[in-house]
Amino acid sequence: MRHSPAELKRLDRDHYLHPFTDFKALGEEGSRIITHAEGVYIFDADGKRILDGMAGLWCVNIGYGREELVEAATHQLRELPFYNSFFKTTHAPVVKLAEKLCQLAPGNMNRVFFTGSGSEANDTVLRMVRRYWALKGKPEKKWIIGRENGYHGSTVAGMSLGGMALMHEQGGPCVPGITHVRQPYWFGEGQHTSPEEFGRECAQAIEDRILELGEDNVAAFIAEPVQGAGGAIIPPDSYWPAVKEVLARYDILLIADEVICGFGRLGEWFGSTYYGLTPDLMPIAKGLSSGYLPIGGVLVGDLVAETLIEEGGEFFHGFTYSGHPTCAAVALRNLELLEEEGVVDNVRDNLAPYLAKRWAELAEHPIVGEARSVGLMGALELVADKTTNARFDKSLSAGNVCRDICFDSGLVMRSVGDIMVLSPPLVITREQIDELVDLARRALDETAARLA
Ligand code: PLP
């Protein structure tokens, strides 16, 4: 039976508990029903075409409607829809995917552990890191330092590693032994000084925390190369080099969460490559399969992997869907397509510089305090007063107003407080970037008019 849109909305309201949604706020109007998608566009039940400036949820890197991925899934579903790899079994799709990932990853990474999501990847990382130090005879190295406003998922470990205060307030307590330091968010927290100086201050905050906790007690530092869900927070150039020095000084592992930055978002296969990092562990997900099927994992550097393998015996950890053959087959085909079509190179050499130029024009808008971008990730800081960068009154929910106007006028941009974030599919064209910037500008005009 085919449901009418009205019927679907009613059933949605009655039965479906959406992620990250205030149910009461859905109101009579209910949810927007998305029916299909093609390229960089999604379509809703009213037949409206919307440019997906968020690539789904930072994940549809290859764009929508790729038959090759449908074929990869169909073929694998017929051949072997599921089998686990727990007890000395394996299968071709997962092995080939692991090999491909290790080819693409920085040179010190030759092993992958698979999960069903980015959150599970971060749960895995937490256990691996503590197990590693225990095997090294340093069980006191337990503390993990994350960042305020960082996002590492919604499982208990994921939300504990993340630094989202609103998440910590619900369903806690968090996993013990995790602490958070300031984020390198110059526009929001660093305007007392230059971006470069602020980047160094933030790295210093990590060192200060290490000394507070005791330099022998810190296991790892976890961070996204560029914070995504926190608001596309691009660190000042001084940040990562200074952080690298601090971590090396105290023998602390680096976990680079590549769930958003991985697979071309910054114009390199990994955000770590963009910033010249050689992490010990890299959680991955999202762009790995371009969101077509759920799959995540952890790329594990030789240092940790060899210890776990040589000294660890069985690691009592794994998920039913670790290395799911159908998800692996789709992910592999997705990586092949990204490679064959030169998608990542095109982001670096063509699209990222073009977006940077067009996006920067929005900085002149009366309610934009800063327009920043790196690769195909961008943010607009909404402000009430451009001369002082004062924010709109919180009660106005300027970001949400702008987000809704965008959606209604044919563009998906997400709001994080009063930051509008952007992360379109990597197959977007220059013409579509023009369309996106025009839509964003008109949405800003309307937001300004409505909030005036
Ligand atoms: N890590 C980062 C950086 C993310 O952005 C996300 C999701 O947005 C996650 C982890 C969690 O991934 P998932 O939603 O697949 O569990």
Q: What is the strand arrangement across the widest sheet?
A: 1-2-3-13
- The residue ranges in which pLDDT falls below 50 over 5 or more consecutive positions are none
Task: Calculate the mean pLDDT score and round it.
Answer: 97
Helix/strand class: alpha/beta
* Ligand identities: pyridoxal-5'-phosphate
Number of strands: 15
CA gyration radius, whole angstroms: 22 Å
Instruction: Provide a count of the helices.
Output: 17
Biggest sheet overview: 4 strands, mixed
The N- to C-terminal Cα distance equals 47 Å
**What fraction of residues sit in β-strands?**
15-25%
Q: What is the helix fraction of residues, given as a range?
A: 40-55%
Shape: globular
Keywords: Aminotransferase, Pyridoxal phosphate, Transferase
InterPro entries: Aminotrans_3, Aminotrans_3_PPA_site, PyrdxlP-dep_Trfase, PyrdxlP-dep_Trfase_major, PyrdxlP-dep_Trfase_small
Protein name: Aspartate aminotransferase family protein
Family: Belongs to the class-III pyridoxal-phosphate-dependent aminotransferase family.
